[in-house]
Specification:
By secondary structure, the protein is an alpha/beta fold. The chain has one domain: Alpha/Beta hydrolase fold, catalytic domain (Rossmann fold, 3-Layer(aba) Sandwich). It has 14 helices and 9 strands. A 9-stranded mixed beta sheet has the order 1-2-3-5-4-6-7-8-9, sandwiched between helices. α12 links the parallel β8 and β9. The longest helix is centred in the last third of the chain and has 20 residues. The protein is globular, with a radius of gyration of 20 Å. The C terminus is likely disordered.
Length: 346
């Protein structure tokens, strides 16, 4: 595996002198109307948000954060049986590997990584796109990468959507090498309808990117737009540009792999601490899959995020980063003491 260090740019002076703890995504919900609603904030609301102790400080300036992520992180790449995998490493501390969903690039995690980089060595990757492989072969390659970054001390995993199934598979394979797993929009198995299987097969042969599919943008607006902070409207366009650039063929191949993914019979073997995230805005399928997972994993806890939607790492990264940071710290303290008792989510 080859790693290329990046140089720190002086244009990040603002980010470097601003504490991550004093910044957020644009709202924590609750009583702060400028965080949760569609109405633009008033001057009084913006002024009140400038004090960190109010719980809703100024939003992260995503443009500067993404620029810092590109310039300050270390880029790496490796060849695997599933294809060429690239990624970045940012920060210091216990290793935390974040795994993407079906679409979008690892840059969608940039805001969350910025808030975690002082406490964690964050590793992100972009899935290979140039080969047709089975679910097992795909997971072989991702596991190989994670194992190398984990080293002798092990690592922590975060997975969202498709990445949650990959994270569970890796945790089952690597056992004690994985110290904790955080799951978002998770599933252990998805029953694909005949239409979904047919669509995945057909889309594998269609060139272009997701943004070129009719109604793709309308579906994104219907599913996610409500939850983005109105105080930072350009962040929505950042998501559309990134997710829309996903090659249609690549997303269809990943979706098609899910026919071969069924982890349910093995989840009882998973002894690593697991945190399952329940978010406001999840649909019936996501809720059912999450409940199924939490019922099968022996050492699991559930946390609820209100007013975040399904893209919490973009809409409210400060809340997600805080929870991950605390969860990682708790597992580290457990290793130094007596074994921790899992919390019953009920």
């Amino acid at each position: 595996m080859s790693v290329s260090p990046q140089q720190t740019s002086p244009q990040q002076e603002f980010l470097d002198r601003t504490s991550p703890e004093a910044m957020c995504c644009g709202g924590s919900g609750g009583s702060d109307s400028h965080c949760a609603g569609d109405v633009p904030p008033t001057a009084e609301q913006i002024a009140s948000a400038l004090t960190p102790r109010e719980g809703c400080p100024p939003p992260l300036l995503w443009q500067q954060v993404v620029a810092a992520f590109r310039e300050q992180s270390e880029q790496w790449h490796t060849e695997t049986p599933a294809g060429w995998i690239t990624g970045r490493v940012w920060g210091n501390g216990p290793t935390l590997v974040l795994l993407n969903g079906l679409g979008g690039s690892s840059e969608l995690f940039a805001l969350c990584l910025y808030l975690l980089k002082l406490q964690c060595r964050c590793v992100v990757l972009d899935y290979p796109t140039d080969r047709r492989v089975s679910w097992s072969a795909f997971c072989d390659s991702i596991t190989e990468v994670v194992e190398e970054f984990a080293g002798p001390d092990g690592c922590h995993l975060f997975g969202t959507s498709f990445g949650s199934a990959v994270a569970l598979e890796i945790a089952l394979r690597l056992g004690s090498r994985i110290q904790s797993v955080t799951l978002h929009a998770a599933f252990a198995h998805l029953h694909l309808t005949f239409f979904e299987r047919f669509a995945a097969t057909l889309l594998r042969w269609i060139p272009g990117r997701m943004c070129s599919i009719p109604l793709w943008r309308a579906i994104q607006v219907r599913s996610h737009r409500l939850w983005f902070p109105p105080i930072d409207p350009t962040r929505w366009q950042f998501y559309l540009d990134d997710a829309g650039a996903t090659p249609i063929r690549s997303l269809a191949r990943r979706f098609g792999m899910l026919r071969q993914c069924d982890l349910r019979s093995r989840l009882s073997q998973l002894q690593v601490p697991v945190m399952s995230l329940q978010v406001e805005g999840e649909g019936e399928t996501q809720s059912r899959c999450r409940d199924e997972i939490t019922a099968m994993i022996p050492n699991v806890r559930t946390e609820f995020f209100h007013t975040t939607g399904m893209l919490v790492f973009l809409t409210h990264p400060h809340r997600l980063a805080k929870l991950i940071r605390e969860f990682v710290a708790s597992t580290l303290s457990c290793e130094k003491q007596t074994p921790c008792v899992s919390r019953d989510p009920s």
